[in-house]
Amino acid sequence: xxxxxxxxxxxxxxxxxxxxxxxxxxxxxxxxxxxxxxxxxxxxxxxxxxxxxxxxxxxxxxxxxxxxxxxxxxxxxxxxxxxxxxxxxxxxxxxxxxxxxxxxxxxxxxxxxxxxxxxxxxxxxxxxxxxxxxxxxxxxxxxxxxxxxxxxxxxxxxxxxxxxxxxxxxxxxxxxxxxxxxxxxxxxxxxxxxxxxxxxxxxxxxxxxxxxxxxxxxxxxxxxxxxxxxxxxxxxxxxxxxxxxxxxxxxxxxxxxxxxxxxxxxxxxxxxxxxxxxxxxxxxxxxxxxxxxxxxxxxxxxxxxxxxxxxxxxxxxxxxxxxxxxxxxxxxxxxxxxx
Amino acid sequence: xxxxxxxxxxxxxxxxxxxxxxxxxxxxxxxxxxxxxxxxxxxxxxxxxxxxxxxxxxxxxxxxxxxxxxxxxxxxxxxxxxxxxxxxxxxxxxxxxxxxxxxxxxxxxxxxxxxxxxxxxxxxxxxxxxxxxxxxxxxxxxxxxxxxxxxxxxxxxxxxxxxxxxxxxxxxxxxxxxxxxxxxxxxxxxxxxxxxxxxxxxxxxxxxxxxxxxxxxxxxxxxxxxxxxxxxxxxxxxxxxxxxxxxxxxxxxxxxxxxxxxxxxxxxxxxxxxxxxxxxxxxxxxxxxxxxxxxxxxxxxxxxxxxxxxxxxxxxxxxxxxxxxxxxxxxxxxxxxxxxxxxxxxxxxxxxxxxxxxxxxxxxxxxxxxxxxxxxxxxxxxxxxxxxxxxxxxxxxxxxxxxxxxxxxxxxxxxxxxxxxxxxxxx
Lengths: 339, 427
What we know:
heterodimer; A: 339 residues; alpha+beta; Proliferating Cell Nuclear Antigen; nine-stranded antiparallel beta sheet; five-stranded antiparallel beta sheet; 8 helices; 18 strands; 36% strand; B: 427 residues; 9 helices; 19% helix; globular; nucleus (chain A); Checkpoint protein (chain A); HUS1/Mec3 (chain A); HUS1 (chain A); DNA_clamp_sf (chain A)
């Protein structure tokens, strides 16, 4: 079993781990020849299934294992994120799977030329004779004698193929409405405020359902976020958002499939000013959990929300990529509470 | 009768704040030892594995300093102990602020009231603020005998020193919950600071194991590095962090002195009449067998093993000779204090300036963190101040008793958003 890669985009990787960490402490990481998958399945709340193309975060990537060159790991995200943060000013960073005292770990080796190197009072000859390198340093760093090398060791668990065989991505019926979300910072600050108001009211009462946000969208570019308690009812409506066209090649049944697609029927209902009562597909979600989902906004991706009325909300977060070919997608499955 | 009076400029008072913050990380109480020529704060942690002595020079550090101990002639001393938190609530942060904002002081006067004819013994701190406000704090203290840790620099052959700012960068790489720090002198021109936790756990618990972080530094990045190659020495990472962060407030170099594992290690640093010494317990080899050559044998010196009170004098004398030479005479320095030319300390990196107009980069990312709804600070509530005069939205009532009856009849045509007082001129 071998995994080794240099990290090409430390910033993206750090933000990715931070976003995922807000939903759960542990990630199932699946490394294979052509992609890297991060999956968070918390005990309750939103699941994330992220599929990244290799070059979104890595370059010179090698993965080898007896099981079709696939390695499954369980990784503590807080430690991984902490380790990556120390690489933000790095000149280079490498990650590899290794073992120490029979315990598997991900070793992150970071070379930095921090300002500290300039504190040196005098250069010494000693800097030139480190050819043999230290046992825990990669030999390729031998030349960078002026650099400070930081190694971070993240404990991990290797998962066998049978352990992960039972984990399946949630299945969902075709959505009623799909819409591109407004900037997440906007959405987050409004939903945070709503949740806070609902919770402030809940201190006297004790109902847990107090922080339920209702999110709804129609096929005419409208998104509505509202919260209702005994004492108040607030809602915000966005209009002029984009409902992307479905691609016949991606929908089961092609053109006929599109004609029979629930969203086609939803197009007949509702209006673009968001005032109509009809044509909304809505879900009820937990405000706190939604706040954690919104954490993904730091990655700056384009987000398409798919609403299955009173059932689930699925967010597809497309990470910006350089070549525009293999896109990396984070899929969030948020299930709707019944009333 | 004890006489102890001294005065501090705001910069020095701020240094007292910083040192108390540091000592607070070691112990709940600090001991004070005042002598004729110097003033020392000491702290010993509860497990007695770390001892700190921070000495302020009577002439250099203070504007004025007077100490006449009850007895003992030249070597006499006044000692007491106080709660670190109590002192910290007096020596708050921001005592020194060139812009004179809230909390800034003009000077700080301290005296000790310890006379048999007075009913109360108190440690009295007077903060003279800029607007002529004087805040007087009277603190209780406990008379204690102050002990000193012994450290023989002559046997501590392994030495290094490094800019504290650089080490501060290294400790920022460390994971949050680690316990130990292994300082290793490699044979390849590198020194390694490794933070780790000894606890071994199994199964699922493994993933909760804190990060192991090793920072390999070129020995040429040290100002001075003279350590037996292959030597590991292990101390508490928490102590090390506290020391480095404090050394960084003074922008000096941190110097380390040690002989071998299980023998004490000392860090010291200081400037301008301020000398900080931390003596720490060390533990054995992290990787057994990595220290093939035995460290120099410690000659059994009878005096170095003697009881603290007797030998502490010799120790102190050597300490005094280690005080850095005065840079400028204190009197001249203070005499020339010119507010315009005073060097404004640069705001500490990593500690965001709350008044800054700029949003820090690190802060920007934290906008994306899920909101902590348990944080009460921003909760919406009622304004219970009953201060209607100062209310943002003036109402009719705020024009007070001013002839309400008089205007009552003619009130009808007035828009309710307008004050009666504003339209009064029309009649």
